[in-house]
# Entry
Amino acid sequence: MAAASASESRVNLNMLLFYVFLILFVLVSVAPLLWVFKMSIITKSELFASPPTILPNSPTGASYGTIFGDSSFQRALINSTIIAGVTTVICLFFGSIAAYAIARLRFRFKSIVMTLILAISFFPHVAIIAPLFIQFRQIGIIDTYWAAIVPDIVFALPLTIWILVSFFRELPVDLEEAAKVDGATTIQAFRKVIVPLAAPGVFTTAILTFIFAWNEFLFANTFLFDDRTQPVTVVIPNFATVYTVDYGAQAAAAVVVTVPLVILVLLFQRRIVSGLTAGAVKG
# Structure
């Protein structure tokens, strides 16, 4: 009895420590977001108060009125949606085809090829800024959506391929063979059988690719100088003058940019989790 009681006490202590750690982790992760949100709803005088207030004394929506009254910010939201949407569609189209070929075809050095594909995602972006700028200027796509879309595709496509390969590997080959027996071609079997069955993985990949393209700053800030094409990540720092910075407007803009991604993840969190774990479970 004593041994069982000691064991039960040890388990309860471990559970308590786990939940304490979990609560602390959540607080540390959420605290910066809550602080930025607080900055977006307080007055300028309270924003520069010392010591700073923990809770807003007189909440106001003036900062949100500033950003939504700015035509450049409204246009930037549309630009970000276009750039991230096009990047996601192109990455899914070519990434799914490449991932299917890698998952099904047998060839030497497949693991090396997969490693090289993934290595592209870790290549330092700043290392290719200068040659890309020269090349894009010669082609004539500076200040166009493609100047941001092309680099985003280059760095998002390897991750897309890597994620989708694991899902296609888990799908039994018998399904494709059965479809071919019924008269379907390889492309038809892939489009009508494999892709629908790999929907959780495709959906997860689409969300991760969209978030990557939505948050990208370096390439957009380097190649896009016209506010007609600049995404929202580039426009946020523009809420400033030569002598002052409107931190409240910048915080409000950051909240507006982040909220759609948070809502997207919360709405489809089950699909995301199932998509990330499906490829790791043997059927």
